[in-house]
Amino acid sequence: MRDKSTNLPAHLHDIRQQVERHAREYGLDLFDTVFEVLGFDEINMVAAYGGFPNRYPHWRFGMDYERLSKGYEYGLSKIYEMVINNDPSYAYLLESNMDVDQKLVMAHVFGHVDFFKNNFMFRHTNRKMMDQMANHATRLRRYQDELGVERVEDFIDRCLSLENLIDYQSPYVRRRADPKVAAEQQAHVAMGFKSEREYMRDYINPPAFLKEQQKKIDEELQRNKKLPERPERDVLQFLLEHAPLEPWEHDILSILREEAYYFAPQGQTKIMNEGWATYWHSTIMTQKAVTAAELIDYADHHSGTLATHPGQLNPYKLGVELWRDIEDRWNKGRFGKEYDDCDSFEERRRWDKRAGLGREKIFEVRKHYNDVTFIDEFLTLEFCLDQKLFTFGYNEKHQRWEILERDFKKVKEKLLHMLTNFGQPLIAVEDGNYENRGELLLIHRHDGVDLKIDYARDTIRNLQSMWRRPVNLISKVEGRGVIFRFDGHDHSDRKVEL
Amino acid sequence: MSLKIKQDQARFRDIVRGRIKENLKKYVQKGEMIGKKGKEFITIPVPTIDIPHFRFGEKQQGGVGQGEGDPGDPLSPSQQGDGSGPAGQGEGQHILEVDVSLDELADILGEELQLPRIQPKGKDRIIATRLKYTGVAPSGPESLRHFKRTYKQALRRQIASGSYNHKRPMVVPVREDRRYRTWKQVPLPETNAVVIYMMDVSGSMGDEQKEIVRIESFWIDTWLRKHYKGLETRYIIHDAVAREVDRETFFHTRESGGTMISSAYKLCREMIDAEYGPSAWNIYPLHFSDGDNWSADDTRLCVDLLKNSILPVVNLFCYGQVESPYGSGQFIKDLKETVGASENVSLSEIADKDAIYGSIKQFLGKGK
User: Fold this and answer.
1) CA pseudo-torsion sign B126, B128, B134, B139
2) Which one-letter DSSP state was computed for residue B225?
3) Could you give the CA distance from residue A115 to residue A118 in angstroms, rounded to a whole number?
4) Rounded to whole angstroms, how far apart are CA atoms A254 and A238?
5) pLDDT at position A109, please?
6) Cα(A256)–Cα(A261) distance, rounded to whole angstroms?
7) pLDDT at A319 over 50
8) For residue range A411-431, what is the model confidence (pLDDT) as tens digits?
9) What stretches of chain B show up as alpha helix (H) in DSSP?
């Protein structure tokens, strides 16, 4: 067990050794982890920076910092734990916490570290992000020195407005060329004039002539080629490749895109990841680490993490309950055809085959799932009833938010819908030469929920500022197709048949 | 240590205040200035700037929650902001409800608006003095003897003269070793203050206008209370005639009829003359109206009253004009022309709730 965190005070160092030993004994597979002890001011700063001590200057970090410090000053909230996905992982401890808290936090942190290292969603993330972020900060600072704070910041604001226009799935799939397109391309080889006689062919079609023909065909193809060939969901990448950006703009946009891709898996595994870490801090603490004197404080703080305000979804709570449910089901053998086919409620309730596969199963699940697949596969009817899940919506007539349904299917559907594509609308570049005028056309794949229109307009404006030519977005509003357009001066919408 | 994020924070605050980057101003989301009415509890607004994204409209979206309740039951208000975001998106919009005392609140207000501290007038009219123990002297009454300093002095003398024996550490002070506390007389300036609120309750002042007055006067009250112990408040309402009322009535009456602003100024003058001698009181008359006075003659009378009897005795006269669909808004123009240049007059037009912020700054920014 290598240990780099030599700056930990001796007693915390001992706790850390103890907790890490327990974690590894349970089978958690960890990166080296460096713990830093910070005062509340510093920890708020680091948290506002998204966990990285060195970020580029931008007001939104100040905004988060202000919110965190106000929350802390008025005793409303404080940051318990923070850990970043990096090798070695860095985790931060709040100086003023009690030792029992530090113990809890460390156990929780090791849960996250194991998850970062093993879950497939994180396989493509940069594990040297600590250094990379610092590099980004340096580059952006240099641009600010050269071009002025205001100019660079304005551009960053516009990039941030587009930062969710990335392809959340792309790191995990290889998007293949369409076979039909490939076949068509086959047909575009220059054949020259027909010739019956083999020995005459070179005479009728000299190589220079063939070459010229091929060039013409290629040019023709190039002209007719759609850009992009398939709808491109990584809008930022499309802009990087095709928008007339200045070199510095190009660099900044690529930096922000990279950071967005780095953070994306954390959002896509929030329920699993927090649940996993909570599962492990609770297991390690209650089975091994907590002393009799610390028990009350531990219970108090643990229950604080899991508190659900009536009607709210707490990812820690939902996550840990699901993990426990899976463990329990696989321990009792409540899976497979026999169990699924059993429709006696009573029998199912008492089902226990003493399979004892729970631990093994959850370790496997933590490797191969993300929130969407996790919920899809493991959220059962029994769980839904047990946890009192419901859907809610806005009732126009009563002008208030109301509980809608407790029906299992509806709840699960809604939950999955919220998680799909990270809860963001699906928007892709359809055409980079729309109407043959070099305009940009995006299509929103409408799935029942309209866009927030004023925001959509402003976002289109930001897109236009990068694309330079007019930008169009096809979406639906109240069931009708609409094209939103911004041409650099004015917004306009018109109806369109979909 | 100064953290580097403080620069980002300062920049963020500047944006929220609308000092820089006007283009972001419309994305600033602000909470209410007053949350709960009554005692010392208040909602602290935590402004955020929401950069526009392509995202779903909220009302159609809904979400999933956990807890008791039947279909059709309303969610409690606190759930609405939080619950509606997908679980994966992190925090929703938080409006923190914070308990702070009014004193802290005034500090926050002062800091946010960068208000100067009030310089109470009448520093030269010293009414009371207070004793303050400030130092140590070699002579004084025995009752004020400073035991520790005396002991130290004796010890120092004994060591210097070589008579101190550490095996038998006895320290005996002599007359010259004794030290006594001394005091100073500190003048205690009289800081009595009175705020006289005047409001136009003629037919043209609607509920929205009154709400503005209520919010604005609450903050002014809070600020002044911080600077003066024992702040008195008086309330005058007027349409064509003026009368004194209590606080509750002040904010809730709706009269109808014409407007004679001079009636209020007259009553205000009488009040000052009778009860608040300018030598002992800091006086703050605040007047809110929609600026639609009955006649030019009456306006002339008002200006007269202000110039000759009110302005000479008060710290600051504030006139806030709320925009109303009926008013002509002439009054503030007349005041600007006649008394606008005076040191202790502050005039402000309040178009809507958003303008309250700027108006408070205008009123209190003079540091009077």
Assistant:
1) positive
2) H
3) 5
4) 11
5) 95
6) 9
7) yes
8) 999 899 888 877 889 999 999
9) 5-16, 58-61, 77-83, 102-113, 147-161, 207-227, 247-252, 261-275, 296-305, 330-338, 356-364
Nearest CA in chain A to B53: A161
Interchain pair A270, B11: CB under 8 A: no
- Taking one residue from A and the other from B, the number of pairs with CB-CB distance under 8 angstroms is 244
Hey, what amino acid is at A388?
A: K
Strands B42-43 vs B28-29: parallel, antiparallel or unpaired: unpaired
In this complex, is the C-beta atom of B94 within 8 Å of any C-beta atom belonging to chain A? yes
Mean pLDDT of B53-58: 84
Verify whether the Cβ–Cβ distance B49 to A59 is below 8 Å.
yes
Write the CA distances from A433 to A223, A228, A481, integer angstroms: 11, 9, 21
Is the Cα torsion angle A399, A405, A406, A412 positive or negative in sign? negative
Question: B62 and chain A: CB distance < 8 Å anywhere?
Answer: yes
- Contact call for B11 and A450, based on CB within 8 A: no
Question: Over the stretch A176-226, which tens digit does the pLDDT of each residue have?
Answer: 666 665 555 555 666 677 777 777 777 777 888 888 888 887 777 766 677
Hey, are the CB atoms on A392 and B48 less than 8 Å from each other? no
Q: Please give the structure tokens belonging to residue A407.
A: 């029906």
Helix (H, G, I), strand (E, B) or coil at B317: strand
- The rounded mean pLDDT for chain B is 76
- Exposed, middle or buried: residue A50 (CB in 10 Å: 0-12, 13-18, 19+)? middle
Q: Is the dihedral of CA B22, B23, B25, B26 positive or negative?
A: positive
Q: Please name which of A23, A21, A61 lies closest in space to residue A44, comparing C-alpha atoms.
A: A61
pTM: 0.67
* Helix A40-48 and helix B5-16, axial crossing angle in degrees, nearest 10: 70
How many CA within 13 A on the CB side of residue A319? 29
